[in-house]
Amino acid sequence: MSNNPFTLTFGKKPEEYISRYENTELIRNAFESPNPVSQTYMIQGIRGSGKTVLMTSIANELSNNKDFIVVDLNSTQDLINDLAMRINNSNKHKNGLIEKGFNISVAGFGVGLGGSSNTYDSISTIENYLESLKKKGKKLLITIDEVMHDENMRHFASEFQLLLRKDYPVFLLMTGLYEQVNAIQNDPALTFLLRTPKLDLKPLSLHQITKQYAEIFNLDLENAKNLAQITKGYAFAFQAFGMLYYEYRNTLSLEDILSKLDDMLDDFVYRKIWEGLSTQDKNVLKAIDTDQMKVKDLCEKISMTSSTFSKYRERLIKSGILYSPSHGYVSITLPRFSNIVSSYD
């Protein structure tokens, strides 16, 4: 697949990238403002919706701003110690950014400032660093991909809240799946995250996908539009279908290409999405056998009252799997989902 402009690498900004200008500008403007409306943002979406790519794109843009230092944390590590280590590594590449002699050991403890023998734990190390940034008019952006609701996140969020209360120039950009974000924001110990603005990733613009497919595949707009509609604006499908069509458009039928697309969707994302659903969620989704299904007909099919169904409807909409195209109807947001999950247990 040489020179193929599409990619399946999660989190990597692909060569053919559909920009989410509104989301990007909203966060950039907030973080770059002298008086930010919020110093934290959460990007929420289903697997394969482009959360990590959007966060990476924003982080890369801000890293080009001389006033920002960007640090990426691993949600599976001890976030506080990881932050202390990473800002120390960042400082080594930013000569003169903070006081000479600043350093921390592998264990996450400082050896002091200016060569003193005082030791500092990770929190003190972080605060000293932020104090230096503040004096120099600089800001620290922390990114965390795929946040988890666990004790590690609880500890980090509590300490981050204290940093905000001390008016440090620290900013936080996170991504997460609906169920994890919901659990974090409803944790009584993490009430400040309840006020964190959430960006729910919507499908990519079919207009922009159409334009890109038309240009790359040398198609007229009508044919390009038909291909774009197959993806339903789902970011992973845009890349996967584009990659397959680029490779096989001259050797395979569209039906055969779509069969390969189904295999990719199954292997990379849909099976993982399916495994995270409750039994009743699965029953609801398997019962949707038309592009737009009447809620009344769906409830009758699965023997469920409308009031009971509304609970599952709301959760599936928030998780990014379902949407309501018009009053009294529901549709699945994910392309070819019903075809693929029909074979699942």
Question: Could you explain the architecture of this structure?
Answer:
By secondary structure, the protein is an alpha/beta fold. The chain has three domains: 21-200, P-loop containing nucleotide triphosphate hydrolases (Rossmann fold, 3-Layer(aba) Sandwich); 207-275; 280-345, Winged helix-like DNA-binding domain superfamily/Winged helix DNA-binding domain (Arc Repressor Mutant, subunit A, Orthogonal Bundle), CATH 1.10.10. Helices cover 50% and strands 10% of the residues. The protein is built from 15 helices and eight strands. The protein has helices at residues 21-32, 51-63, 79-92, 122-135, 151-165, 178-185, 191-194, 206-217, 221-231, 235-248, 254-275, 279-287, 295-301, 306-318, 337-341, and strands at residues 40-44, 68-73, 139-144, 170-176, 198-200, 293-294, 322-323, 329-332. The chain has a five-stranded parallel beta sheet, with helices on both faces. Strands 6-8-7 form a three-stranded antiparallel beta sheet. The two termini are 34 Å apart.
